[in-house]
Amino acid sequence: MPPLELPADVVDVLRRTFTAEITTVNRAGQPMTWPSVTYFDEAEGRIICAVSIAYPVKAYNARRHPQVSLLYSDPTGSGLDRPRTVLVQGTAEVAEVLDYPPDIIGLFATVADRQPDSSRFTGNRVVRRLFNWYLFQRIALRITPDRVLAWPGDDDGAMPVEVLRRG
């Protein structure tokens, strides 16, 4: 997949915002939303979110109904000054992580960077051995953006601007 052609300030939001609210649709057709750490794989033009095998609901939902959305609305900790609010509507591919390709390594590096205290937990050999299934066995949601909307950083009441549309 080619890189996305997005405005630089939108790319900054996708790169630097700590969490996005991911919305999937459950079996009953109801939207379900959770905060999640995401990784923007710029080279591949997609966003990666991984879920633990202990909490696979996002993956189950995305497998049944691959249309998902990601809302980047809280810049806390990002260092961005009044960034745009960004909504990504896309199609998710769901796959168990059996090896560690660059996008998954990028996601793990992003998590370690954004949650530095986690290294105390993952750096302990005993803990890694006991909780390997929780720490490293993941289900990847690789989200290809179909549409991206952005609101001005200083006015969430304004109309959004469509900055990307595919298909």
What does this structure look like?
It is built from 6 helices and 8 strands, in the order H-E-E-E-E-H-E-E-H-H-H-H-E-E. The two termini are 14 Å apart. Helix content is 27%, strand content 35%. The mean pLDDT is 84. It has helices at residues 8-16, 57-64, 102-114, 118-122, 125-130, 132-135; strands at residues 20-25, 31-36, 39-41, 46-52, 67-72, 85-96, 138-151, 161-165. Strands 1, 2, 3, 4, 5, 6, 7 and 8 form an 8-stranded antiparallel β-sheet that branches. The chain has one domain (8-165): Pnp Oxidase, Chain A (Roll). With 167 residues, it is of the alpha+beta class.
Quickly list its features.
single chain; alpha+beta; Pnp Oxidase, Chain A; 8 strands; globular
Helix content: 25-40%
What's the CATH first level?
Mainly Beta
**Fraction of residues in β-strands:** 35-45%
Mean of residue pLDDT values: 84
Q: Number of helical runs?
A: 6
Structural class from helices and strands? alpha+beta
Based on DSSP secondary structure assignment, what is the total number of beta strands? 8
Question: Which regions contain 5 or more consecutive residues with pLDDT less than 50?
Answer: none
Q: In the CATH hierarchy, what is the superfamily?
A: Electron Transport, Fmn-binding Protein, Chain A
Distance between the termini: 14 Å
Sketch the topology as an H/E string, one letter per element. Answer: HEEEEHEEHHHHEE
Overall tally of domains: 1
Q: Give the CATH topology.
A: Pnp Oxidase, Chain A
Q: Radius of gyration over alpha carbons?
A: 16 Å
Tertiary shape: globular
Q: Architecture, CATH level 2? A: Roll
